[in-house]
Write a structure and sequence with these properties.
By secondary structure, the protein is of the alpha/beta class. The protein has one domain: Hypothetical Protein Ychn, Chain: A (3-Layer(aba) Sandwich). It has a five-stranded parallel β-sheet with strand order 4-3-2-1-5. Strand 1, helix 1 and strand 2 form a beta-alpha-beta unit. Helix 1 packs parallel to helix 2. The longest helix has 16 residues.
Length: 120
């Protein structure tokens, strides 16, 4: 089943349940042969930093760091909102491998053909 899918993730430690479920859904989409993008914005950008997701473990789910790693290792795309990242004073030197900082135009480009997007 070809196609694309997007998850906009705005949460991290402020709502670990949503942060975790966002990556559960992203992994499911990727496993369904969808080209899948996770767009990290607002508080979600913190998940792009090495080691940050290690502190998030929701009962009933795999650890968030494991979900993120599996997603990236399987070829999932992770884009990080540049203004959100800068606003929080985060360092590009601490980015997870495979994560890209982008402006909003890259998200619009990915969605322009009508790609479905869910938000957490």
């Amino acid at each position: 089943m070809p196609g694309k899918f997007c998850v906009n993730l705005t949460r991290s430690t402020d709502d670990p349940d949503r942060a975790t479920v966002g990556f559960v859904v992203a992994n499911a989409a990727l496993g369904s042969d969808k080209e899948t993008l996770v767009f990290l914005s607002t508080e979600g950008v913190r998940l792009a930093e090495q080691g940050f997701a290690e502190q998030i473990r929701e009962p009933g789910f795999a650890p968030l760091a494991e979900l993120i790693g599996s997603f990236i290792d399987a070829g999932g795309l992770v884009y990080v909102c540049s203004p959100c990242f800068k606003k929080r004073g985060l360092s590009e030197d601490r980015l997870l491998p495979g994560v890209t900082i982008v402006g909003g135009a890259k998200l619009v480009e990915f969605l322009a053909d009508g790609t479905p997007c869910v938000s957490f």
